[in-house]
Design a protein that fits this description.
Blueprint lengths: L7 E8 L4 E10 L3 E11 L6
Antiparallel strand pairs: 1-2, 2-3
Length: about 50
C-alpha cells in the first residue's frame, strides 16, 4: 500500500492507577476519515520484573 493510502493510527497509553492503564486508539483512512476508535481501561495482573 502506498504511504499516502495507508491507514493512520493514533494510540495513547496513560497510567490510570497502580494496576490499571488507560488506552485510546483511533484508526482513520485518508479521504474517508475515522474507521474505528476505542478507549478503555486495562487491568494489569501482577508485575513484570
Amino acid at each position: 500500500i502506498p504511504a499516502a493510502l495507508a491507514p493512520r493510527v493514533e494510540a495513547r497509553e496513560d497510567p490510570a492507577g497502580p494496576d490499571r492503564i488507560r488506552i485510546a486508539v483511533d484508526i482513520a483512512l485518508p479521504g474517508i476519515g475515522r474507521l474505528i476508535a476505542y478507549s478503555g481501561i486495562i487491568h494489569v495482573e501482577g508485575s513484570r520484573s
